[in-house]
Amino acid sequence: MILLLKLILAHLIGDFILQPKSWVKSKEKRKLKSPKLYLHVAIHMALLLVFVWDISYWPLLLTLTFLHLIIDAIKLIFQTKKSKRQWFFIDQILHIVSIFLTYYLYTNTTFTIFEIPTESALLLLTCLLFLTKPVSIIMQAIFSKWNIEKLTKGNESLKDAGQYIGILERLLVFIFIIMNHWEAVGFLITAKSVFRFGDLKESKHRKLTEYILIGTLISFGIAIITGITFQILA
């Protein structure tokens, strides 16, 4: 299983951490002619090599790299402005499915007792990484159907403040859960509700209120599910 976690971790870093927005825009504009597409795939290959660090797995790594290119190409070809949100999730689902299928086709799932500490540490790192920028981007894709600028017209906030708040709250919820301090999760939710209450009370926009509530619940929900998943697998 440790190999599978390395493959997923390489995907998260390559697709979310090491892919600037400018690259995404270039790929969407130029599609298969964009050099950023092939640079992005090359980075994925490099990450797989670094994380796995075992040349005997070269068929698996080459297959994953090829599948990543195919999936990204399919997305770019068929994606439109209206279907961008849907294709984001289709793309990620296909990538994860391809990782699992390739892993089970090329390897067996047995591991020794000596791998357990390393496996738990890698699982923890994967969960923590997932709760940062990947979830932020996932939530941006979820909310792309609504125009937040119209909902908050006249109100300015710090640049990327919402993203950083979301990252911090998800990391805190995850840490509280794996430490079995569920009461701290309740306290954190209550504290955020108190801070948000003033904004929601003063706002006359029902849509903005619903937007904030949905975002908060999704963010906490993903963090809680990730924490529970870690406890089950660790």
Could you characterize what this model shows?
Helix content is 79%, strand content 0%. The chain has 234 residues and is mostly helical. The chain folds into two domains: 2-111, no CATH class; 145-233, no CATH class. The longest helix has 28 residues, at 206-233. Mean pLDDT is 79; it is low at 110-117. It comes from Bizionia echini. This is DUF3307 domain-containing protein. Keywords: Membrane, Transmembrane, Transmembrane helix.
Rg, nearest Å: 20 Å
Number of strands: 0
Number of domains: 2
Unreliable stretches, pLDDT < 50, 5 or more residues? 110-117
Report the span from N to C terminus. Answer: 11 Å
Give the overall average pLDDT: 79
Instruction: Count helical runs.
Output: 11
Q: Portion of residues in helices? A: over 70%
Report the sheet-strand fraction. under 5%
Instruction: Please tell me what the overall shape is.
Output: flat
- What is the N-to-C succession of helices and strands? HHHHHHHHHHH
Largest sheet: none
Overall structural class, as computed from helix and strand content, comes to: mainly alpha
Pfam families: DUF3307
Keywords: Membrane, Transmembrane, Transmembrane helix
InterPro entries: Phage_phiKZ_Orf197
Protein name: DUF3307 domain-containing protein
